[in-house]
Amino acid sequence: AVVSDVKTNVRIDQVSPTLKIEEKTFKATRMFLAEDNFFRVFSAKMIKGDPQTALSELNSIVISETIARKYFGEADPMGKSIEIRHIGPYTVTGIFEDLPENTHFKYEILASFVSTEMSVGTEELLTNWSENNFYTYIKFSENGLPAQLEDQLNDFIDRHNSSKDASDPAKLSGRKVSEGSRLHLQKISDIHLRSHLSSELEPNGDIRTVYIYSSVAFFILLIASINFINLSTARSTKRAREVAMRKVTGASRGQLISQFLIESLSYTLLALILAIVTVDLILPLFNNFISRELSFNEGGGISTTLILIIIGLLVGILSGIYPAFYLSKFQPIRVLRSQSLPGKSSTPLRNILVITQFAISITLIISIGTIDRQLKYIQTKDTGFNRENILVLSARGSISQNLETFKERLLAFPGIKGISSSRLIPSNDLVNMSGAKTLDGEHPGPLPFRLPLVSIDYDYFENLGIKLLAGRNFSREFATDDSASFILSAMTVRQLNWGEPAQAIDRPFSYDGTTGTIIGVVDDINFETLHNPISPILYRILPSQNYQLCIRIDEREMTATIDFIKSIYKEYAPESIFNYTFLDDAYTNNYRAEFQMGKIMILFSVLAIIIACLFLSRLMLQRKEL
C-alpha cells in the first residue's frame, strides 16, 4: 500500500436528483453516489442483495427498507427500475436496513459511483488532484496512528504533485500540500459533536451544547436534592420524638442512620420510576416542542439502565446522608422533656443551602435573558443583504438550459420585483479555494489566505441589496465581464492590505488560471452563519454554474406570485417537483440549534424555579403548623 495501515477507503458524493418509480415522482433528499466497496467501510445490514457486489455494476442502486416500502409497497423491489431524471434507469440491486437516528451520515439511496454523469459530468474531475467535491472515508488497521497516517498521506500527495507539469492549471502545478490544502483526518465519532467544518453531510451538534444541558440538568437535580435535605431537617420537630423513642428502646445511631438512608433511597427510587414513566409519556410533546426526534431508549439498553440506577443511588445517598446524621444525633432525654426541640430554628448549613438554591435559580433566569437577547440579535442583525420576501428556487436541467428566457417570463409578472442566479446563496457554506494570485503591488503571487468563489449573474448585487463600495457592477455592456473581470468583497481588500476599496480597482488579478481585472468592491456580508467571522469573497460571472434562483416577490401578492412561478416552472420542467424555500427561512434554519436551546433553557429554568418555590411554600406551611 502507498500509505501503510490503510485497509480500504470509499468515496461518496451527495446528489439530489428527481427520481421516478413507476408513476411516482419525488425529489431525492438523502441520496449518494458510492464506490463499490462502500459496505466494506460502513456496516449497514443488507436485507436483500450482496453487499460486496451491489454497487459494482453500472447503473446499480440500493435503497433502504423505508424507501422500498414507500414506493414499491408489498412488491419485491429487487431487479426493478428507478429512473433518474436526465440520466436514465437504474436497477435495484440491494435493500438495507434503516439507519439509526444517531448517525452523522443518513443515507436512504446509494447509486453506483461509476455512474459519474449524475454528479460530476466529466472523468476529469475524478482524476483531478485538486478536486474536493467528494467525501472520503478511510478504514485503518487497529494499530494505525492517525497523526502518522496523516503525515504519510500528505507526503504522498507532495511526491505526486512534484512530478506534475507546472504549466497545467488544472492540476496543483507541483505545489506542495503545505502551499495549498493540507489533508486532515477526523474520527467518525468526532464529526457530529466536534466538527465545525463547512459542507457537512448533516447539521452537526456541538459538544458545548451537551455540556450546557448536562450542567442545567445537574443544577436542577442539585436544587431538588437541596429541597429534600432542607425539608427533612425542617421536619425534624415531628420526627424528634420518634428518634428518641427508638433510642430508648435500644436502637443504635447506626441503625437510625440506616433507616433514614433507606427512606431517602426509597424516595429516590420512586422518583426515578415516576421520572421514567413521565419521560415516556411526554417525550412526543417535547419532540414537537423542540422539533427533534429524540428517543428515550436510543443507544440505550443495559448501559443506560445501569447509569440511571447509579445516579439514583448517588442522589439518594447524598441527599439523605446529612438528614440521617442530623436526626440520629438527637438526645432522648432533652427531646422527651420537650426542651429545645430541634427544627424550630434554621441551621447554618440549611441557610447556605437555601442561598445556593436561589443563586442557581437566579443564574438560570439571567441565562434565559442572555439567550433571549442573542436570539433577538440573530433575527434583527443586519447581515449586509436583503433576505426578506426572497424565494429560492433550484434551476437545473431544462430550466438552466433556458435560464434567460425563464427569467424573462417570470419578470413579466407584476408581483416579481427582481431575479438573480448564483451557485451559492447566503446561508450556504462557502467553499474555500486556492489558486488566487495578485499580479502587481509589493508582493505579487499567491494569496496568503483562502479565497472562496461565489459565481453570480449580472443582477445578483442589485437583487439582494448588496452595496457597491467602489468601481462598478458587472454589466452586459462590457464584453469581458463574463470572462476576465472580478469583484472583491471589502474584507478581501483589507486582508490584501490594499487600503481603501477604490485602490483595488483596475488591479490585475488571477484566479484558478484565469487572468483579469478587478472592476469593483462590494460591502461585506455575513454569507455564512454568525458563528463564523466574515469571510473574504471573490465574485465572478459564471452562468453555467448558477443553479439557484433568488426571486424577489412583492409581499402583497405573495400567494398569486408563487402560483404564477409554479405554472411557469411546470412549463419548463413538467416532471420536476416544485420545491422552494425562502432566503429568510434558510438563514434562520442555520440557527435551529440556538432556538432549540432557548426553548429548552426556558423550560428547564421554569422547572428549577418551581422546584425552588415548592420548598418555600412547604416551609411556610410547616412554620404555621408549628
Automatic annotation (TrEMBL):
<keyword id="KW-0472">Membrane</keyword>
<dbReference type="InterPro" id="IPR050250">
    <property type="entry name" value="Macrolide_Exporter_MacB"/>
</dbReference>
<keyword id="KW-0812">Transmembrane</keyword>
<keyword id="KW-1133">Transmembrane helix</keyword>
<feature type="transmembrane region" description="Helical">
    <location>
        <begin position="265"/>
        <end position="286"/>
    </location>
</feature>
<keyword id="KW-1003">Cell membrane</keyword>
<dbReference type="InterPro" id="IPR025857">
    <property type="entry name" value="MacB_PCD"/>
</dbReference>
<protein>
    <recommendedName>
        <fullName>ABC3 transporter permease protein domain-containing protein</fullName>
    </recommendedName>
</protein>
<feature type="domain" description="MacB-like periplasmic core">
    <location>
        <begin position="7"/>
        <end position="154"/>
    </location>
</feature>
<dbReference type="Pfam" id="PF02687">
    <property type="entry name" value="FtsX"/>
</dbReference>
<dbReference type="GO" id="GO:0022857">
    <property type="term" value="F:transmembrane transporter activity"/>
</dbReference>
<feature type="transmembrane region" description="Helical">
    <location>
        <begin position="600"/>
        <end position="621"/>
    </location>
</feature>
<feature type="region of interest" description="Disordered">
    <location>
        <begin position="160"/>
        <end position="179"/>
    </location>
</feature>
<feature type="domain" description="ABC3 transporter permease C-terminal">
    <location>
        <begin position="215"/>
        <end position="332"/>
    </location>
</feature>
<feature type="transmembrane region" description="Helical">
    <location>
        <begin position="349"/>
        <end position="371"/>
    </location>
</feature>
<dbReference type="Pfam" id="PF12704">
    <property type="entry name" value="MacB_PCD"/>
</dbReference>
<dbReference type="GO" id="GO:0005886">
    <property type="term" value="C:plasma membrane"/>
</dbReference>
<feature type="transmembrane region" description="Helical">
    <location>
        <begin position="306"/>
        <end position="328"/>
    </location>
</feature>
<feature type="transmembrane region" description="Helical">
    <location>
        <begin position="210"/>
        <end position="231"/>
    </location>
</feature>
<dbReference type="InterPro" id="IPR003838">
    <property type="entry name" value="ABC3_permease_C"/>
</dbReference>
